[in-house]
Write a structure and sequence with these properties.
Layout (H helix, E strand, L loop, with lengths): L1 H22 L2 H4 L1 E2 L1 H4 L1 E8 L1 H22 L6 E4 L6 E5 L6 H11 L3 E4 L4 E5 L1 H26 L5 E5 L5 E7 L4 H9 L4 E10 L2 H7 L8 E9 L5 E9 L4 E2 L3 E8 L5 E7 L1 H13 L5 E5 L2 E4 L10 E8 L1 H13 L6 E9 L1 H30 L3 H21 L3 E2 L1 H30 L4 H33 L2 H34 L10
Helix pairs in contact: 1-12, 1-15, 4-5, 4-6, 6-10, 11-12, 11-13, 12-13, 12-15, 13-14, 13-15, 14-15
Length: 519
């Protein structure tokens, strides 16, 4: 018996020492969630229709360019009405039918095509679902990259639901929601395109074209500072096809312009640099537009061949140049973002929540302890020791697993206290029953633990399964509750069964065979 007790207490000591190691000092080792530390909580919606529209425009351009290359300019090529992911094509009267078949087969593999007076092409349903899902996943990754480069410690960024289009962002310790929202929302899609013409108004630009913009070109607005530092509104006719885009970007950083102003310097990938060098080398003296999010930021004249670097000029402050460089490095969002919910939690509110949570936990522990002492007399001390050790080991486990403690997590800890004492109640009632049947104290304790074990495992296991479902499908606060509850229940089975048994066995082994038990 003494040998068994020795290894039991040795194991309890090792587990307790490990908990101390992982959680001490608690203010540094235990991660606090947004509701306890303070910060920003955002719920974003990815507008997946934007991604569908971009894919649709790309497909339409592939069809148009394929027909134009063969000398058959389509009479009309336009999107279907809003809500329908497709387009209609009215080919030239003399267009070869075999050529159309070949173009549809090679350039529209993701569309179902219906022939008629007009040809209608629609995305296949499974392709449409994939585009929307990919847009959310790409948006999630892009936002995560931006937040990581912003320098927020321990952010929570996750998709809400399995196939939903919402993203939950929690940023502990951040108190500047306006800058964060602008940083997340910025699309920052960079394009460098050839300039065909420019005019101070859109009407005069279109009039110079005979009233119609060519199919391979588009009008883009821009506001560029003149030599006096004032913004000058100009409209540019640029080619739709880009020389390079943000996808060709390798890096971006804030730099200093020739007049000491803040600019953004960008570096291209090897392939992007080759394309850029080939174009600029062949178009020295021509103008090109640096377009960011559909607006011309600068329109320099090519003086010589440019390899893999360039600059974006504008009326940047140091902070705005840093933010733009950050967004360019992290990549462009595949679709626009809508803010559905925003909450800012102050650090003082978080501290107040911690204090109230600790007081609630201690009050609950005190009330339970008093009840156990009154109802089970001296044996109640056994359950109190197990409960205190349970809470202590739970905090150590959360620190070891790098879990985040939230306000619902504190509620889970308090609920664990009730569940843990329930296990002790089951054991103590079984021991009472055995004593009433005339069993010796030693036999009553042994049988009490043995016969209560199955009920303890069943009750805790069913609750743990429910908590796992909460963790799998819940959002941040719900996950925090599920984590603390699951860990607390697993630890309570250790303390209620293993530790409590060790205490009883130690007391019974230190004296002559006991004839009574204070329970």
């Amino acid at each position: 018996m003494k040998g068994k007790l020795t290894w039991r207490w040795a194991l309890i000591g090792i587990v307790t020492a490990a908990a101390i190691f992982f959680m001490w000092p608690p203010e540094k080792k235990i991660k606090l969630g947004l509701d306890l530390r303070g910060g920003i909580h955002l719920v974003l919606q990815v507008n997946t229709d934007d991604a569908v529209r971009a894919e649709l425009d790309d497909a339409m351009e592939r069809v148009r360019s394929g027909l134009v290359e063969k000398g058959f300019v389509p009479q009309e090529l336009k999107r279907l009405a809003d809500g329908e992911a497709g387009f209609t094509l009215r080919p030239a009267p003399n267009t070869d039918g075999k050529l159309l078949d070949k173009i549809f087969e090679e350039r529209l593999p993701d569309f179902s095509v219906a022939r008629g007076a007009e040809i209608t092409a629609r995305f296949r349903p499974e392709v449409l679902r994939e585009i929307r899902d990919r847009a959310v996943r790409q948006g999630l990754e892009t936002i995560r990259n931006r937040i990581d480069q912003f320098g927020v410690a321990e952010p929570l960024i996750q998709r809400q639901g399995i196939e939903g289009n919402r993203i939950v962002v929690q940023l502990p310790g951040v108190d500047d929601p306006i800058r964060v929202k602008e940083l997340i929302r910025a699309t920052a899609f960079l394009e460098i395109k050839p300039v065909v013409n420019a005019a101070p108004t859109e009407e005069s630009l279109v009039a110079a074209l005979g009233g119609r913009v060519p199919d391979d070109s588009e009008v883009v607005p821009g506001e560029i500072e003149n030599v006096e530092g004032r913004g000058q509104r100009t409209y540019y006719l640029v080619k739709k096809a880009s020389v390079v885009t943000g996808r060709d970007m390798r890096n971006a950083m804030r730099s200093q312009g020739q007049y000491g102003d803040a600019v953004v310097r960008f570096m291209l990938t090897p392939d992007g640099g080759n394309k850029f060098a080939a174009y600029t080398g062949a178009h020295v003296g021509d103008q090109m537009a640096i377009i960011l999010d559909g607006k011309v930021r600068s329109a320099p004249v090519i003086r010589s061949q440019i390899d893999d670097e360039g600059i974006i000029e504008g009326s940047f402050t140091i902070e705005s140049a840093e933010d733009l460089a950050l967004v360019l490095r992290a990549g462009a969002l595949p679709a626009s973002i809508t803010y559905l919910e925003e909450r800012t939690v102050g650090p003082s509110l978080g501290r107040d929540s911690i204090e109230r949570g600790v007081r609630s936990g201690l009050a609950g522990l005190l009330v339970v302890g008093i009840f156990m002492l009154v109802y089970y007399k001296a044996s109640g001390l056994n359950s109190i020791v197990a409960l205190v050790l349970n809470a202590f080991l739970l905090m150590g486990a959360m620190a070891a697993l790098n879990a985040t403690l939230t306000l619902p997590g504190i509620a889970g800890i308090i609920l664990t206290i009730g569940m843990a004492v329930d296990s002790n109640v089951l054991i103590f009632e079984r021991i009472r029953e055995e004593l009433e049947l005339g069993k010796t104290v030693r036999n009553a304790v042994d049988l009490g633990f043995q016969r209560a074990l199955s009920a303890i495992i069943d009750s805790n296991l069913t609750t743990i399964i429910s908590a796992l479902f909460l963790f799998q499908f819940g959002t941040g606060p719900i996950k925090g509750f599920a984590v603390s509850l699951t860990l607390g229940l697993l630890i309570s089975m250790f303390t209620a069964v293993f530790v409590s048994r060790a205490i009883f066995d130690t007391l019974l082994s230190r004296r002559a065979p006991a004839t009574t038990l204070s329970i």
